[in-house]
Amino acid sequence: MSQVSKIFRRFIPQLLHMIVLSVFFFAFMLIYRPANCVEFMGGEWFGVHLTICSCIVFLAAVIMRLTYYYLPMKINYSLYIFWCVAEIIFTAFFVALYIWLVRHKPMPYFEAFTMSFKYLFLTLLIPYVILALSLRLYEYHTRSEDQSSHTMNRMRFYDDRHNLKIVLTPGDVLYITAEENYVNIFYTENGKLRTYVLRSSMKALEELCQDNGLVRCHRSFYVNPAHVKVLRKDKEGIVYAELDDKDAMHIPVTKRYYDNLAEML
Q: Which pTM value belongs to this model?
């Protein structure tokens, strides 16, 4: 499964989780008051205990979200879901501990934990889903804007003597390959795949490609992620990028560049 998008690892989304989870929990429990929650949190002292529990939710979210932010390991979407559930369990532990200590009626801690987890899971599931969908929507919108701007730009290719040789729109360029002292630029024109041989190097084209959305996928290849249909591994374990043009070759993708390209698809 692919790695979680980079936007999920930025600080602002972590801050949103810290604030939204605690505020939503407080508002939802105060307004709707699910079955037995008033009695569970102390009857006439419900408002006070709910406020303190909401603060616990906030502090637990701060600890877990900062840990996630600084965590060096890469996480896929399955592990991210597991992390969110772990956050709820972590929060339920301290909410249950508080309720268990302040309740006048004796209650086994395990029962308090079970009730706390139930209320937290059913309540926080809503903001978790909303935040995740909002981040994905924001990422999609940002990526669409970037691709539109790339389409409106022009890629000007110069040879090693700084002579302008060809001008293309980024959206028309499929991939670029290196061959000794030349690079082969594969692009579409009137629906047909064409090639232009340019005397230059991959290093000389690095900034031009990065500024126009092409990414390195191999020591000898740049590819346009907008034209990558799927990443596929063959029987020998080599990963290839299949493009949306049937006449284009399958582009090799090395392990060094795989994660970066996968995140852009």
A: 0.59
